[in-house]
Amino acid sequence: xxxxxxxxxxxxxxxxxxxxxxxxxxxxxxxxxxxxxxxxxxxxxxxxxxxxxxxxxxxxxxxxxxxxxxxxxxxxxxxxxxxxxxxxxxxxxxxxxxxxxxxxxxxxxxxxxxxxxxxxxxxxxxxxxxxxxxxxxxxxxxxxxxxxxxxxxxxxxxxxxxxxxxxxxxxxxxxxxxxxxxxxxxxxxxxxxxxxxxxxxxxxxxxxxxxxxxxxxxxxxxxxxxxxxxxxxxxxxxxxxxxxxxxxxxxxxxxxxxxxxxxxxxxxxxxxxxxxxxxxxxxxxxxxxxxxxxxxxxxxxxxxxxxxxxxxxxxxxxxxxxxxxxxxxxxxxxxxxxxxxxxxxxxxxxxxxxxxxxxxxxxxxxxxxxxxxxxxxxxxxxxxxxxxxxxxxxxxxxxxxxxxxxxxxxxxxxxxxxxxxxxxxxxxxxxxxxxxxxxxxxxxxxxxxxxxxxxxxxxxxxxxxxxxxxxxxxxxxxxxxxxxxxxxxxxxxxxxxxxxxxxxxxxxxxxxxxxxxxxxxxxxxxxxxxxxxxxxxxxxxxxxxxxxxxxxxxxxxxxxxxxxxxxxxxxxxxxxxxxxxxxxxxxxxxxxxxxxxxxxxxxxxxxxxxxxxxxxxxxxxxxxxxxxxxxxxxxxxxxxxxxxxxxxxxxxxxxxxxxxxxxxxxxxxxxxxxxxxxxxxxxxxxxxxxxxxxxxxxxxxxxxxxxxxxxxxxxxxxxxxxxxxxxxxxxxxxxxxxxxxxxxxxxxxxxxxxxxxxxxxxxxxxxxxxxxxxxxxxxxxxxxxxxxxxxxxxxxxxxxxxxxxxxxxxxxxxxxxxxxxxxxxxxxxxxxxxxxxxxxxxxxxxxxxxxxxxxxxxxxxxxxxxxxxxxxxxxxxxxxxxxxxxxxxxxxxxxxxxxxxxxxxxxxxxxxxxxxxxxxxxxxxxxxxxxxxxxxxxxxxxxxxxxxxxxxxxxxxxxxxxxxxxxxxxxxxxxxxxx
Length: 979
Prior knowledge:
Layout: H1 5-40, H2 43-77, H3 92-100, H4 104-124, H5 127-134, H6 151-184, E1 188-190, E2 195-197, H7 199-226, H8 240-266, H9 274-303, H10 307-325, E3 332-335, H11 344-351, H12 366-373, E4 379-380, E5 386-392, E6 395-403, E7 405-406, H13 414-420, E8 424-425, E9 427-431, E10 460-461, E11 470-473, E12 480-485, E13 494-498, E14 506-507, H14 511-521, H15 525-528, E15 537-540, H16 544-551, E16 556-557, E17 562-566, E18 569-580, E19 589-590, H17 591-595, H18 598-602, E20 612-613, E21 615-625, E22 631-635, H19 641-650, H20 662-665, H21 672-685, H22 690-695, E23 700-701, E24 716-720, E25 729-738, E26 746-751, E27 761-764, H23 774-784, H24 786-792, E28 798-802, E29 806-810, E30 813-824, E31 834-842, E32 845-849, H25 852-860, H26 889-911, H27 914-939, H28 973-976
Parallel strand pairs: 3-27
Antiparallel strand pairs: 1-2, 4-7, 5-6, 6-9, 8-10, 11-15, 12-13, 14-15, 16-18, 17-18, 18-21, 19-20, 21-22, 23-25, 24-25, 25-26, 26-27, 28-30, 29-30, 30-31, 31-32
Helix pairs in contact: 1-2, 1-14, 2-4, 2-6, 5-6, 6-7, 7-8, 8-9, 26-27
């Protein structure tokens, strides 16, 4: 039955409307992407990517369509006038042909369109392979097996494999569809017995199968080069079996495949299936015997009984290539005695050389920053803070830094989410070695508006790690919340509004642009809101990593962007890596597995891809301006051939290293993810002798984090002095332990302020001594500091947190330093940790102090004297003569004040109110000083300092800090004050 005329007309109209809607959304996505690239000044990247992908899409679709479609046409045009078996009654193929034939053109066109769509998309996805091939740069060194430049394996070999894969796919699809067409139109019939085919069908399919085998011959020949990526032997790369059995086998198979292809081509002129059958059988038999059985026999009977001697040269190739590919060939291994004892004079002189060790742990103190510097509930700090260095009081100091980003608005609606709460405000920084009297960070930049401890700068954060998906800024009205301020009467708070004046974002002043972004985000308010006007701009792609990744899709970015104040601006600094898995003989490992540790598991840091790599360079340093979103890319490793290849492909996207501003250079650091990869590799590849490597007895591993029994300890940024250097340097450090053991095997450090040629230094400990590793050091701390830590857990109302366990070369040995924090045990939004104690261990000696200096003096003594143990102060009387002097009025009043302050402090601790506790501690300290003064007046002498008096805040040079709790919180003033 035919449909009525009107419904028949509605169907194509509906289809056309659907196509138009799809086209509009596709156009909106592409055009808004171009607008974004134009706003950041990198349209050349967009045009290069789009044109490359478009050309590959069209080329792949047309070639595949031409090959497959051409074979379908050949099969159809060579169909017999009367099909085989046509006069023997109805056949199944005849019924299928009757159903298909009336629609063959439609099926042909639609089928090729779908095939072209999938093929074009697949080929377009290989844009990086194509660009690397056409812009390839020589490495200047050759592989040891074939003697050709390594760029062949990095750039040319993947492209050849891509082309072969495309041709194999095209021929296989052509064979399948040609066989179907021949069958439908009577070219052959599947009858019993045997296969009956017309000559045209036999010739056509013979040629296609011959082409497939010919391509297989080429693939066998190309596979010889792929042996440098073999996983057959002891290590990655061509092994003894690969070189002496597999490679000759590939040569033989290539020749046999060529002969088989010729036999199939011979079937074109000689009827019958004997020659193709012989060729097919020969191919299968040779693939089994020559390609599989022969190499297996060589491996089993020649290599395995003598594997160490047979594989020696190939292991050496792997070691050399791996160390070069991961840029650790220059790593310096220094034998280190790791003394556990030393003379008092030596150790005391060494103490004076220790800089202000960073005691603030950036993975612990985020709640502290949140509580002390959040200011308003709609601001937030990241889960993990960052470590940088700044010149403070004339010295370069490790500094814990973070930016105050915008969080969730108090009242969620479209206006608040996208027009009012648009940006964060401020930069917060605290010297890592300095705290105030209550164990809180001693901020040098804080508050809103920010203090200028590091100079003046633009404080607004429009581009950050936690910025909203998009914001509309820069309109005529000042509706953006800028920062809270005190009201005129000094009570409550008001707010300052702001209108964005930067150059970041895309102008959306005209209706058409707003329409495109309304389609992009599915938001009609972009069209309807009166607050979006001719001066408005839309900010999106605001995460620093996302912005850089869009501009430099050929880079893999470090997981930890960090902010820095540079020339009066807050810049996000991100390290970019060029990586590959095609460096010959170099060991492949998972990038995500190598960079995974406690910091990535516990915190919300971006997970790196798990792709396997065997080549990496920190080739680019990138910055993103937190106010206007400007992205700058700078060359860092100027010798990297992979980076030079990408620079050819994308033009002048990356600036030369010489263009890096000096003030920015002061904040560039050795990237953490690269160091994780290199320490993972050096766990094995510090061994450079092939025989020792085969044995594996000297291999190391990254120790487990003492705070966790499942994941690796992260590396730490800390300023230290290596034994062979005179001055301390800002460094990135890690420890290594032997496989299956917990004692220390090596200490690894790299100058984090150096350039791309900076080498890692490894202090290798003697194997005949047992130096405690991080886990063992933590066990010692937990045992010897148990009573002190229990005192900090006041009646179970508070808990202690271990900070980063730092390892420092010291006095010919290694010094462990660990800060301990205390916080209320009750989980609530107001709790935060403060520094309470510092633990130090050298050899078997442990110091537990309220400051780093205190802990060091307990271990090494002071001024040539052995460390003294603090005692509980007593009254200024002798044991033989008790004090019977009546208490004076001043003494009585001071005692009452001390008892009251102590009681209030204990009550504050029970409530988890550390702020009130700190105030009570101040009053208690003053009262105890009054008691001391009154005792002096009464006895006319000098009374000892009460033990409950908080330790004065140490200088920055001492690296110490005072805790929130008093040293003896369980001792009431009635006992501490004496009689």
